[in-house]
TrEMBL record:
Residues 1-59 are annotated as: Disordered. Pfam families: BAH (PF01426). It comes from Lepeophtheirus salmonis (Salmon louse). This is Protein winged eye,BAH and coiled-coil domain-containing protein 1. Signal peptide: none annotated. InterPro entries: BAH_dom, BAH_domain_protein, BAH_sf. Gene3D superfamilies: 2.30.30.490. PANTHER family: PHD FINGER TRANSCRIPTION FACTOR (PTHR12505), PROTEIN WINGED EYE (PTHR12505:SF24). It comes from the Eukaryota.
Amino acid sequence: MLKLRKKAKKKKRTTKKEPEDYNNDEVYDESAEEDSSSDNDEGHSSHRSLFKGKKNSSKFNPVTGRPLWIWGDEGYRRPGSKGKAKKLFHRSVLRDNEVLNVGDCAVFLSMARVDRPYIGRIETFWETWNSGHMMVKVKWFYHPEEIETNEERVDLKIPGGLFQSPHMDENDVQTISHKCSVIPYKDFNSRSSISDKRKKNTMNNTYYLAGNYEPGSFSVQCLSGVLK
């Protein structure tokens, strides 16, 4: 297991921006749900939403041209909420025949390089009580090329590895591009050849878990067998 560490510093990543005809002021007037996540985000970068505030009146995403995501269930309120709850939580979103559930992994729209898309695991879906704005909380993965250390480079034997992190933030649901898979290394490695692995990763949006990365302290833990 490789462990790398250097002095922590803040890092900022920027997603692709949309025209400024949205207003997101209401979205972040949240309760203890967001307060509990703020500790995880301290010292980490922040992904900025493509869509801000009011619902888009169009039925199509202005960035991708694809239909917008809609809720896949009626929603529920958290037990123990006092008074008027500020959020209605959901377990899934739909787009045509595609279903994305809490716990699934997804590729997000961003200004990142084509070979390094932003990839995260869906932690929570919800809509705000006053505006109905569709939001998602994401726990992010990092590509090895995005990992910053003072030590040796993280050089994986097989392309397609991702590092899970505690970095979480919130985005508009419409920033989700499409569903992907992050599978165990042994399953990914069972494929016939490196060229096949690379092709599968590119064509089928399948990645493997290579280890853990802490952006705040720049520490890395690689799983056994993933390094050259």
